[in-house]
Structures are given as structure tokens and as C-alpha cells.
Amino acid sequence: MAVLNKPAAGTERQGVWLSGAAALAAPRWYLWEGGFLVVGQAGGEVPAHAHHAIQLFVALDGVATIRAAGGAWREGQAIIVRPDVEHSFNAQGSTGAMIFVDPESSEGVWLQSALTADLTIAPRARVQACSGELRTFLERPLEGLDAGSLVRHCVLAFCAGSPPSRRFDPRVATILRRIREADDLRYALEAAAGLVHLSPGRFAHLFKEQLGLPFRRYMLWRKLTRAMLAIGREANLAAAAQASDFADAAHLTRTFNQMFGIPPSVLMRGDFFEIPSPFAPAS
User: Fold this and answer.
1) Model confidence, pTM
2) Which strands sit side by side in the sheet containing 78-81, from one edge to the other?
3) How far apart are CA 123 and CA 116, in angstroms?
4) b/e per residue 28-46 (b: at least 16 CB within 10 A)
5) Residues 251-280: b if buried by 16+ CB within 10 A, e if exposed
């Protein structure tokens, strides 16, 4: 597990967690390309936004609140949001964990199969299945699971039944693998279509049908997840933008705000660790 750069003393910024947290004394971020775990005390409302990850928040004390676009606020100890769903969130000062799960992972596909609504308030029994390990991780880290195992444990606590048999179309799976492995994310739709011997129009339709969002939007999301790692490594927005193929820091900041509802400066505080992805790709 690699420790990422931490801002120099005095440079920490007050603000919110991704998708809903604020005023952490020292948040702990565990980052991998495609998702993250952040643990600590949280609070503060984040305005409406939408991102491609499955969002899971578990509070160890108190409750969080969430609402869909134009809807009423709902509260719960554990909340799950489907990918690409516009929502506002408020952790209300609770201590807990936020996990962003890659929806194209095997675990992400399984978790989504258990969700019957865009916003889910999880039952108490499911919360209890992971809250004990979360509390140990926060309070007695030498006695608990490592970060990657904790993430898998918590996500699987909210899965139901057997893993679904869904598989991506082999042509889409090929492109997803190429994107994960690519150093350069300036990957054009036309190039992806040619690689799997489809016309751009046919490939665009197939990709959106399989993943639920257009190819270009997906590529922007992958750039953003790579930028989060780069922010942790570099502690510098301009360098992070260049490393993740954004045009500049302003482009990165706009995209971050659109997808997370907050500026990327929230990542410029706390302790950062880079870990291998806890999830397996859904082939």
C-alpha cells in the first residue's frame, strides 16, 4: 500500500468529502483507479450532482440524508446510490465510511442486482454486517482488516443472493480492458469502434446499451478517477490534470464539480494511500 503525498502543514482546506462530508480533522483516503474509500467524521450538504460510481455510505453514529433531483430528503444509517443518478447528500456530522464502487466490476454488478431503486436506504441487518469491521478499522486499525479487504467486506454485506450471470458483450469487454490498461485516455470512439470491427454508430449504441452512459461520458469518468489518484500523488491540480489527460486544471475542476458537486481541493487534505483495486473486472 503506497502512501500518497500529503499537503504541507497549513495548506489543508476546510470543505466536504466527495458526495457529502465536511470539516474532517484528518480524513483517511484509500484510492485506486475506479474508486475509493474515505473514512472519518463527516457533515455538510453537497448539492445535486451525478457520477458513474455506485455510492455507498455507512454511518457508525447518527444518520445521513439524501434526496433525488426534485425529491424529498430521506435519512438512513446506510445509503446506496445507483450509478449516474443525480442526487444531493448530507452526512450530518456522522462518523463513517464512503465507498465508490466501480459498476463494471464483478462486485459492482452484483451490488446493482440487489438494488430496486435509484436511492436505497439499507436495512439495519445489512448495516450491522459491516459496521463492526468499520469501527475496528477506524478505532483499532492494527486489529482490523486491511483497506482492500474492508472495502470488499462492506460491499458484499449489501449484496444479495448469488452473483448474477450477466456478462458484457465481448466487444465491450475488450474496450473496457483496453481503457483500464491504457496510459493515454485520449481514446476516441472511432478508434474503439475500429478495434472491435464495428461502425462508430453501432459501437456507440452498443456501449450505451451495456453501460448506461455514452462512450465519451464514460471516458471523462475514467479520466476523473485517474485524476483523483494523481491529486493524491502530486497534491497539485495542474500536474494532476496533465497526468490524467485533462486539458488543464480548470477543465479538471469543472468536471470534478459536475460529477461530485464539490471542488477537487477537498482532496488536498488528510492522509492518502494508494491500494490495488479491491474488485475484479466483470468480463
Assistant:
1) 0.89
2) 2-3, 271-274, 28-32, 35-41, 95-101, 54-59, 78-81, 119-121
3) 13
4) bbbbbbbbbbbbbbbbbeb
5) ebbebbeebbbbbbebbbbbebbbbeebbe
Mean pLDDT of 98-118: 95
Chain centroid to Cα 134, Å, comes to 18
* Residue in 90, 100, 89, 91 with CA at minimum distance from that of residue 40: 91
Pick from 52, 57, 24, 56: nearest CA to 40: 24
Kind plus residue range of the DSSP H or E element containing 79: strand 78-81
CA dihedral over 104, 109, 115, 116, signed as positive or negative: positive
Q: What whole-number distance in Å separates Cα of residue 102 and Cα of residue 83? A: 9
pLDDT of 161 over the 50 cut: yes
Integer-rounded Cα radius of gyration of the chain:
18
Structural contact between residues 79 and 120, judged by C-beta atoms closer than 8 angstroms: yes
Distance of CA 282 to CAs 105, 156, 216, Å? 5, 15, 20
Res. 24: pLDDT tops 70 = no
The grid coordinates of residue 31 equal 484510492
pLDDT, tens only, 172-207? 999 999 999 988 888 899 999 999 999 999 999 999
Residue 23 C-beta-side C-alpha neighbours within 13 Å: 8
The DSSP 8-state label assigned to residue 69 in this structure reads T
Q: What is the topology classification, in CATH, of domain 2-165+270-274?
A: Jelly Rolls (2.60.120)
Query: CA torsion sign, 177 to 120 to 151 to 52?
Result: positive
- The domain spans of the chain are 2-165+270-274
